[in-house]
UniProtKB/TrEMBL annotation:
Organism this protein belongs to: Jannaschia seohaensis
Assigned GO CC terms: plasma membrane
Protein name: Putative 5xTM membrane YitT family protein
Entry keywords, A to Z: Cell membrane, Membrane, Transmembrane, Transmembrane helix
Transmembrane segments annotated in the record for this chain: 69-86, 93-116, 160-180, 186-204
Bilayer topology: Multi-pass membrane protein
InterPro entries noted in UniProt: UPF0750_membrane, YitT
Localization per record: Cell membrane
Amino acid sequence: MTAKQPAQDQGAADLPPSLAHTALEDAQSLVLGAALCALGVHLLRADGLITGQTAGLGVLLSYLSGGSFGLWFFLLNLPFYILGWLRLGPRFVAKTVIAVTLVSVFSSALPAVLIIESLSPWVASALAGSVIGVGLLVIFRHGASLGGIGILALWLQERAGIRAGWVQLGFDAALFAVALLVLDPWLVAASLLGAVIVNLIVAVNHRHDRYIGR
């Protein structure tokens, strides 16, 4: 999940109450977005693929340890909530905690109910990138994120003047470099396809000047 985590939408904060998302709309959207992201991770893990950012690190650690991606993803995000609280506010962090927890739970449950016996790595990567990209859009548009490195990147940009995009790009480059040491290079190459698709979907569609509700 390599797309840049969104900062708070200042324009949407000024919307009249009639255009703001209700609690029920937020709830169903966070469930939907988390389910799509968890499905994408399940597709990746079915073929030994990875993705970027904190989710990618969680996937890689699950391969190396034999443990659950859901548990790794949940634990890796814990330190970033403090930064998120300071940088983006309690409402954003509360929704992000919910989204991360849902992804962790759904991704842990899916292997028992959705068994994938055969799937081309390139097809798995493309499908995973597509559903993760759409899932992130849903989560972003309801004032949340999937936490992690994106929050750290925003904090470093504010404190040290290092652009958030470069921080995330550097992290992903390091993550994929490490993956090359422990995974089949062909699978790492296929994984890049999914990462590109995620970023393209978010870059093209997550525009505050188009989307007015929140």
